[in-house]
Design a protein that fits this description.
The protein folds into two domains: 101 residues, Immunoglobulin-like (Sandwich); 67 residues, no CATH class. It is built from five helices and eight strands. Strands 1-8-7-3-4 form a five-stranded mixed β-sheet, covered by helices on one side. A three-stranded antiparallel β-sheet has the order 2-6-5, with no helix packed on it. It is rod-shaped.
């Protein structure tokens, strides 16, 4: 990929030098995304006459004749020259690149050509927020995904089932006093037994003479 890109730049540089455009600023333009842009076929040292016509070559190697019109491009006659102007209706990455305009006489013989570039390196931005908007969105989504994972782990740890052994160790860490599961279970058992004996619904044999069988 790097070799291919290098070869493309060499070819573009060679074509520009053939046209006498050694400085990129002379033929390459930068403009805002989602806006329209226009090229006019001005060739240094060539007076384009009304009997001439112009064709345009797009970055994807399409040849656009006069009156061509689709969702991306429109070729417009101007100053009585057929196809003199190319309208790019909406700038997006697919239309970035190098354009050629070629001038022909009424016999179909080529008189000259020139090269234009649009957003060769990157599009123009109104402010820094527009430039890094996609990176900011990616960062926000990644942060939210990470937060959801952390929150899920915390909830699982907080509401997970706690065994008596785990509870005993937790109390020991908090109080610093030795604590055993057997003591905990014994205390719970003794408490249940005491509650049962104190309950009015539970009566022993001595409290219920009618249930006591005398021998």
């Amino acid at each position: 990929m790097i070799i291919w890109a290098t070869m493309c730049w060499i070819c573009i540089g060679f074509a520009a030098s053939m046209e006498g455009l050694s400085n990129t600023e002379d033929w390459a333009y930068q403009w805002y995304s989602d806006e329209s842009f226009r090229f006019q076929c001005h060739i240094s040292g060539l007076n384009v006459s009304q009997t001439d016509y112009v064709t345009w070559q797009t970055p994807d190697q399409r040849i656009l004749p006069n009156l061509y019109n689709d969702t991306e491009y429109e070729v417009i006659s101007k100053d009585n020259v057929n196809g003199f102007e190319l309208l790019i209706k909406k700038i997006h990455p697919n239309v970035h690149g190098v354009y050629f305009c070629k001038v022909y006489d009424n016999q179909g013989l080529a008189r000259g050509q020139t090269i234009y570039g649009l957003n060769i390196h990157e599009a123009k931005y109104h402010n820094m927020l527009d430039k890094y908007k996609s990176q900011i969105n990616v960062a926000i989504i990644a942060s939210m995904a990470f937060f959801v994972k952390i929150l899920t782990i915390c909830l699982v740890c907080h509401y997970q089932y706690v065994t008596p052994e785990m509870e005993a160790k937790r109390r020991q860490r908090k109080t610093g006093e030795p604590y055993s599961v057997s003591n905990d279970v014994q205390m719970a058992t003794n408490g249940q037994l005491a509650d049962s004996m104190a309950s009015p619904e539970w009566k022993g044999a001595y409290e219920n003479p009618e249930d006591f069988t005398q021998f």
